[in-house]
Amino acid sequence: MLLPVNVTFGIVLAVLLATAACVAAVAHLGPGRAREMVVAGLRAAVQLGAVSLVIGWAVRSVPLLFAFLLVMYAVAVRTAGRRVTPNGTWWLTALPIGAGVVPVVAVLLLTGLVPVKGIALIPVTGILIGGGLTATVLAGRRALDELATRHGEVEAGMAIGLSDRDARLEVARDAAADALLPGLDQTRTVGLVTLPGAFVGMLLGGASPLQAGAVQLFVLVALMAVQAVAVAVVLELVSRGRLHRDPAVPSPRGARPGT
Asked: Which compartments is it annotated to reside in (predicted)?
């Protein structure tokens, strides 16, 4: 067993979580960030404990399996939406995450590379949903921040004849594309800097190093595909003014959302 679940395990976890929160507080890494870390750590403990029990129940039935995956997707959408915007357009984050994850999972199932079994489908789909969530949040936040900061450039683009979409796109594209960097760096340095979870998990499960490497390569390439699609869809939603941070009620002057 890699990590024995005992009292020492709990104490070390508590110390690490307290350290993270204290550093965030002392270094002033954002208002309320230390509290968020503590809450996130406690939630992770409760959620992983619950998931450990639920997975054993969900893998026994295909309908329960897909219901569990839908819950994972819904939580990811809500989490991403809250990070990107506080208004009612948050639910549109369902589109980039779904557009990235669903086709990839469908290909995996149709080709038989991943069987319709919870023990295989849940972790793979979870990794892909997590990657889609991260890319959606980073791309959405960066694009909207850039539009707010460079609002004058958007107006200038419109003044020279660009459409609203094209003017926003010119300003937001590079910022949104930065969301791909974590995935690219992870893929470039795999095996040299880190040994990701899928590789280590396969080795611990008794697979050969070659099998573990193949699975990890597959996961990394699939993640890049998911994240590329998610970023492209987010950028389109932002550039069209669908996903924005303006109040849901139009301003008296009739300003368009996202401008």
From this structure: Membrane
Q: Which residue has the tokens 């199932």?
A: 109
Q: Are 147 and 238 in contact (CB under 8 A)?
A: yes
- Which residues does 227 contact at the CB level (< 8 Å), separation at least 6? 100, 131, 132, 134, 135, 179, 180, 183
Q: Rounded to an integer, what distance in angstroms lies between the CA atom of residue 103 and that of residue 93? A: 16
Residues 113, 117, 118, 120, CA torsion sign: negative
Per-residue pLDDT of the chain (259 residues; tens, 9 = 90+): 556 778 888 899 999 999 999 999 999 888 899 999 999 999 998 988 887 777 777 777 778 888 889 999 999 999 999 999 999 999 999 999 999 999 999 998 888 878 777 677 888 899 999 999 999 999 999 999 999 999 999 999 999 999 999 999 999 999 999 999 998 998 888 877 767 666 766 666 666 778 778 878 888 899 999 999 999 999 999 999 999 998 643 433 344 444 4
Write the DSSP symbol of residue 205: T
Listed in sequence order, the residues at least 6 apart from 173 whose beta carbon sits closer than 8 Å to its beta carbon are 235
Residue 10, number of CB atoms within 10 A of its CB: 11
Residue 4, Ramachandran bin (φ over 0: left; ψ between -120 and 50: alpha; else beta): beta
Nearest C-alpha neighbor of 129 from the set 198, 222, 244, 38: 222
